Amino acid sequence: MKALGFLVRFLPLLAMAALSPPISGWTAEVRSFEGYGPDSAWSYQGEVAPFSGESGQGGGFCKDNYCANGYGSYSSEGGIDYTGTFRNGQMDGTGTYTTDFYEYVGGFRRGKFNGHGTLKCYHGSSFKFDGMFIDGKMEGSDKPVGFGCPDR
């Protein structure tokens, strides 16, 4: 059943990837791999590029000399899901990031919320922020968005 849900989430990504122009300098290849992060196991399905060893590459979703690069989908056993674009093994571009506590839809840069986005909180909170994020923080806040929702 979990595989069917993953397939249903991944099919639109394949369609987007087929219609999107390729990122200059590499040829898209779709792979699936799993790993273990600081808190829980994770899995990735989507476009990858060979690991080049460049500064800033890796440290994210990379395995067997390939890193997430292009459209893909990430899930963790810790309750985090992301569908969107990756660059050099990190969430970068636009996507949807969902936890048990909130959902963020918008821009990413080097794995952090960055650019315009919308943050909606769950579990009885009516908090919603639609605006700019800089390095994982809401504009005007010095606290990064983490588990739970902000107090503002």
What are its keywords?
152 residues; mainly beta; ten-stranded antiparallel sheet; 10 strands
Helices and strands in order:
Layout: H1 2-19, E1 29-36, E2 41-50, E3 62-63, E4 66-76, E5 81-87, E6 90-98, E7 102-109, E8 112-121, E9 128-134, E10 137-138
Antiparallel strand pairs: 1-2, 2-4, 3-4, 4-5, 5-6, 6-7, 7-8, 8-9, 9-10
What does this protein look like?
By secondary structure, this protein is mainly beta. 12% of the residues lie in helices and 49% in strands. The chain has one helix and ten strands. It has one helix spanning 2-19, and strands at 29-36, 41-50, 62-63, 66-76, 81-87, 90-98, 102-109, 112-121, 128-134, 137-138. Strand 9 and strand 10 (137-138) form a beta hairpin. The longest helix is centred in the first third of the chain and has 18 residues, at 2-19. It is globular. The model is unreliable at 10-23 (pLDDT under 50).
C-alpha end-to-end distance: 39 Å
Oligomer state equals: single chain
Q: Please report the total strand number as a whole number.
A: 10
pLDDT averaged over residues: 78
Main sheet overview: 10 strands, antiparallel
What would you call the shape?
A: globular
Helical/strand content category:
mainly beta
